Amino acid sequence: MQGKIINERYKIIEEIGKGGMAIVYSAHDTLLDRKVAIKMLRPEHYSDNDFKEKFRQEARAVARLSHPNVVSIYDIGIDDDYIFLVMEIIKGKNLKDLIKERGHLSLVEALEIGKQIASALDAAHKNNIIHCDIKPHNIILTDDMEVKVTDFGIARAVNSATMKVTDTIVGSAHYFSPEQAKGGDIKAYSDLYSLGIVLYEMTTGELPFHGESPISVALKHLQQEAVRPAQINKDIPVDVDNLIMKAMEKNPSDRFQSASQMREAITLALKNLKNSQNHINIINKKSDPGETKILKKTDIFFRKNNDKKYNESNDDSGIKKVDKNNVKKSLFKNKEGKNEKFFLKRTSVWILVIILFFSAAVFGGYFFFNSYTNVPVVEVPDIVGLSFEEAEKELGQVGLKFEENKEKVFSEEVPENHIISQFPAPGERVRQTRKINITISKGPELIKLPDLSGMELREALVELENLSLNKYEIEYVFRLSIKAGRVIEQIPAAGAEIKSDELITLFVSRGERDMSVSMPDLTGMDRTKAFQRLRELGLNVGKIKLENSTRFSDGQIISQSYNPGDMLPEGTPVDLVISRGLLNPENAEIYSSSIKVNVNNIKATEVKIVVKDNSGKDVVYNAVHQPGESIMRNITSVGPTEIKIYFDNRLIRTKKIGG
Prior knowledge:
The chain is α+β, with helices and mostly antiparallel strands and 659 residues long.
């Protein structure tokens, strides 16, 4: 494959990875002069037409998905028996490799990664795209720990077409949802279950279910409860433990109901975790021996008292004779005399302070506990879809408030300044002190339209798709001064700010007006319609020859002087041979049949139609067609008839008439 040019544009550099359904190559995009990744599906998937069509639909949908945590898809195509995707190339490692290296990730890292995956899934689900194969192998981490989710669309298409095949299950059985395991409907919450398993593995270094085969693992997803993550990793706090287990609920209705809701829960858990770590850091901070310290009054008093005793023990010269007995007496006296009184006083003060401290602590604890337990428990109202002011009023009626930090995101469906999602969910019961996390819509994102004039059409379309502008129409016009295939003009104009679903019209040059026309296939056509068709194209009717035919009825065109597809100057005369009647010496039954052929191959195909009847065996049609084209032929035959259709000399279909 090295050095091969795909689609007359992408030059293969080297193989960089392979999997059960595709091989990935690095390549050079010769049109845009950039390095890309090309994922080619393995040949065993080509024979399944349903799969190929679903693949095309899903890939086009994902190509319109623009999100920083999703690997961008630039192009999709079929070339020389290859079905392929062209994607951005990412430098980094997949999450599975990172988990293998580390054993398990830190809680902050795991939650940060999980948050980004949830954000990618949120964008996909809002575009009606379900991944169906979320697992660490499909998560790439850049050097800056930015998440890139891969295999959008391919996983969906393969899963839909081959869900019952054991080989398809092998790579993903540890991560798919119970509904996938039993072949049920796959929806957005299926991806959230898989994300729960990924979080489980990141925080514990282990998978929740193991088995000797993919089937045994699938059954555990359906029947067995997972060991809670906190039982494996004691550092996992309760809210993170609960979050992961909620995502992995067997019943989809018990899970998070949207990726945005799960992302908000992860964000809240991450915030609590960081606050908890900051608190621990403050407690564990070591004292700096050189830092400024505040002395208590008692410290000053003791120092002053000791200094006084030191001064009193010295004469004017500062020298005093020391007697051992006096020292002993002095020590005894100090213990029995003044120091004893001072010690008793000091002890009494400290006992009083301790009593007051514990009394205050008990009273304060009681007051705090009493005030907390007396906070009313209320039901969280449903504020999704309301304006911010309406939502604030709705929450105020039950004594709840918003979190101070409110996330704002673009939305095509939800109007500006209206609530997209909330956490906790509607119907949950919380204390009035609980703050409600919300995501607010910024309305549809307005995209600045680039200047496309002068670009090749394909380059302009890639530019639009990279901006998620996928609604466009193309008008071809003749323009002598501009090379054919280049954009002449655009509506709206460059610099206009438009919504992603707004129509863009591109006017593309045909170049200099070509006065030649393509010769149509008139064979089998009635003479009147054939003459009319030639006049419409600016061609003239040439010499006419009449003869009897074994294949065509009276007045039908038997042959023409130019082959279909030949380019002829306007005014060229076309000679025709026309049937004067069908030869039928035995007065056999005459049949008229309509044959329709759809070319569903993935490459250009030679189509041949052969008729065998009382008049003999004839090739009545032979031409090359592109994928997706259709052929309709009216065939007249005499007596029992056998019609055979060939693709590249391979028999595709046989039709028998009469007999």
